Amino acid sequence: MKTQLFVSSALALLFFLGVPHASRAKALTVKIIISGGKLPEPIEITDKHALAASDIWIGSFLDTTRPPLEDPPGDIQRYEVIFYVKYRRDDIRKAYAVYYCPSRTAEPGLIYLPGKGDPWQELNWGTIVREGRDGKWNYASPVWEDSIKLAISHAEAFQHHASR
After folding, report:
1. pTM
2. Rg of the chain over CA atoms, in angstroms?
3. CA–CA separation, 129 and 86 (whole Å)
């Protein structure tokens, strides 16, 4: 019985040591900084619901059920969105960046994933490459967009009111 327990424990340990990437979760998004658009200064988002919809590894901020667009529609408001992740306890770093354009219609907003030669391309490709989506405009996921649009509108209203 002792031998069987030892062998089972040893096999389990070897399995987990042999597949470290499969057994560990990726770093979590812990903060988002948004600038541009009508924002006179950047805003920081740490709301747990917004962050849960902002997983850079699986791209939960994108609506991958729809194909990307080559070009955005005409005159649109553009925000720079920087995702920060926590790799270790004292290691929070900038890990991914996109450009977000909220829609003025019932259509979802668009997210531009920097591609070859774009600012932020090096950062993003050092984190994750999205074949067929980098360098293109992608639709925002509804859950992510709801959180981000709300944060932006609150910040713009507050900052506009505070400047009076």
Report:
1. 0.80
2. 20
3. 19
Q: Which two tokens stand for residue 158?
A: 């507050």
Determine how many CB atoms are found less than 10 A away from the CB of residue 53.
20
What is the length of the chain?
164
> Quick one: pLDDT at residue 75?
73
On whether the CB atoms of residues 117 and 125 are closer than 8 A, the answer is no
User: Contact 16/23 with Cβ under 8 angstroms?
Assistant: yes
User: Quick one: which of 50, 103, 105 has its CA closest to 81?
Assistant: 50
Q: Which domains are assigned to the chain?
A: 25-162 (2.60.40)
Beta partners for 14?
none
Give the whole-angstrom CA distance, residue 143 versus residue 87.
25
Residue linked to tokens 């649009």: 149
Pairing of strands 91-101, 43-45: unpaired
* 123, HSE (Cβ side, Cα atoms, 13 Å): 17
Q: Regarding predicted confidence, which is higher, 154 or 35? A: 35
94, two tokens: 């900038």
Contact 113, 131 (CB under 8 A): no
- Summarize the confidence of residues 141-148 as an average pLDDT: 94
Phi, psi of 98 (to 5 degrees): -140, 170
